[in-house]
Amino acid sequence: MTQPTTFRRVPGLQPWLPEYLRTALELAAAGMPVLPLRQGKVPFGNCPSCAGNACGGRPNMKTPGPCHCPGICHAWAAATTDPDVIASPVWAAAWRRAVCVGYHPGGADLTVVDLDDADAVAWARATLPATRTVATTRGEHWIYRGTMASRNAVRPSVDIKSAMAYARYLGLGTGRLTDLPDTVRALAAAKPSTAPALMPAAVAPAGDGACPHRTPVYLERGIAMAVDRITGARAQVHATVYRVFLAVLSRHGRCGCLTDIHIARLFAAAQAKGETLRHCMDAWANARTRLGL
Questions:
Q1: Mean pLDDT of all residues belonging to the chain
Q2: Contact in structure between 57 and 77 (CB atoms under 8 Å)
Q3: Measured between alpha carbons, how far is residue 289 from residues 62, 191, 249, 282 in Å?
Q4: Distance (Å, rounded) from C-alpha 197 to C-alpha 256?
């Protein structure tokens, strides 16, 4: 898809439509799969029939599009260009509660390099080929033509959002859209560790298994603070979850004091912010790999 420089008004759009719904219909008409994002800039939760992926989800979660239920389910996989779905009663109600428009970059043959602070932007300007850029609250989105695997925290404050991911729509940006370069693909070349089928096992103890922390209260306080940090994330939820997992594992990952109950609390906090179980498992596995656990 070639990113348009301007969007034409879609015939038939009524002026009373909610702002985000109007934007979504215009983006969809240009070929960009969209979805509403709620408070926290995260997708709406699955409907009761799809909670916990009880419905089986989309086939392998590899293609965008509406779930076979009336809800806006499965995060990025709900993104669609179908105006009848986008303006359906269920979706229209969500647009009235939405705080912004999200889109599936991979579904539009795009890759977003999400730079979350000034240092990350400076690194991109010195390292990556120029392309279309969009200003964000704390940094920039660099958008390339082409699709690749998504991955969080490929560098400090740098995420890649393309296939099986969503990004926030923040406007057309500036600059000419260029092809996805090998320098960006290389950032996600390292494969994360394979995650277990359901939940990761508690970290095995090192040495004789003696916990070096003074009291169990220390661990409990650390887990509570980690949960609070995830719960309080207002943006960059994927990256926040990964960084929290990394912090917890760097402090407690080698002493054997982490249990399945502690891990479940962290995962539950992340899923309450809109993360899928698979995202949680991947973030946990990536954090363990980075720490050599």
A1: 79
A2: yes
A3: 25, 10, 11, 10
A4: 21
